[in-house]
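Reviewers of the previous submission asked for a worked example of the structure-prediction workflow described in the proposal, so we include one complete record here. The input consisted solely of the amino acid sequence. No template or homolog information was supplied to the procedure at any stage.
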Amino acid sequence: MTVRTRFAPSPTGFIHLGNIRSALYPWAFARSTGGAFILRIEDTDLERSSQAAVDVIIEGMKWLGLDHDEGPFYQMQRMDRYKTVLADMVTAGLVYPCYMSVAELDALRERQMAAKEKPRYDGTWRPEPGKALPPVPEGVKPVLRFKNPQGGVVAWDDKVKGRIEISNDELDDLVIARPDGTPTYNFCVVVDDIDMAITHVIRGDDHVNNTPRQINIFHALGKEPPVYAHLPTVLNEQGEKMSKRNGAKPVTQYRDEGYLPDAMVNYLARLGWSHGDDEIFNRAQFLAWFDLDHLGRSAAQFDEAKLRWVNAQHLKAMDDAALAPIVADQLMKRGVRADERLARICGLFKDRCDTTVALAIWASAFYDKVMPSDEERAQHITEAIKPALATLAAKLAECEWTKAGISVAIKETTAAHGIKMPQLAMPVRVLVMGTAQTPSLDAVLELYQRQTVLERLQNS
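From that input alone, the workflow returned the following structure tokens.
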């Protein structure tokens, strides 16, 4: 069997980390098994769906490298197919028209709740042998309801939750087409999964209540349902379900804030799946290790501090030449154009950073003006140190512009003035980079153009 998984988001709001994890796992399972990953856009909620939300879904998945093999398929473009299946089901007696009005349905539910019964449709319009149906009201367009099996159970072995069994008597006859003939969500999903030959449905556990209804529709259509894996909810840092309403950010905002796609994949993978105690791993390792047997059963909680730590580890491990274009993009957003030095700058400063934004801030000091704070100048650029700064400037004007040559100039200056390295290095850092804390001074200065260093030292 060729594994075929899908991600089927509804474009009714921007995609956040809780949503994208439901794309990561089916993508990883397809990739790890040599299967296919399908992208399907469930856009039947016309009032709330938007093209902007679709764009963020596709852009976010592209940034994270969650490439799809087929799609995107749009449900609104498949309406003719759904209506054909509906017509076949009507002919086969699997569905029936129901003329119960909304007011009648509300009244029924109120009576049931008052009697402490579960509110559910009571089958008034369900045709049965020997049953007399009410007269059809004039001018009322019916909904179509699915004839749910009566008696017995619907069951499946969930790859996360284990064996689940639901009594069919708990399920009423589901509306699968509205009065205007448009099909409803649970029906469309089943037709899509059949047509797209989906073998494994890996999705959030907010869909668990839909699953028994969908399984019964699969069986009515003569098809075996896929394997299901229902993922626990991702909670935000306050312990609430992650959502736009609760402050979740669009996936693409993490890109803009300087997170690396492989770090995001690493972090998201651990929000509900594990491989022993491994915390940091690359994409190839993840795909080699991933399976459905190690999905977690309990809700995972998002922790931005942990995400930053994971990102910092990937930043440190990343090849400088590969990192440079990403940092260059961050610099361009700040109106700063980088040059061929950027890869070496990244190599020197990346151990101090947890995002590419932080790295770009360091790098900008090599391409843009720096403005040391009044506090830094007052603390480090004293009258006592200015003669040593003048000596260093003179030596730097003549030395070989290499790390070794600059190191010699610094040592000769400290020896000539009888001062220790930090007494000279910190003022130089403040003048050249705008801060007293940087990596090794000779390594920093070598990455500058000589004239830039001399001009900044004259600003003492």
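The longest strand covers residues 36-41. We consider this example representative of the routine output the project will generate in years two and three.
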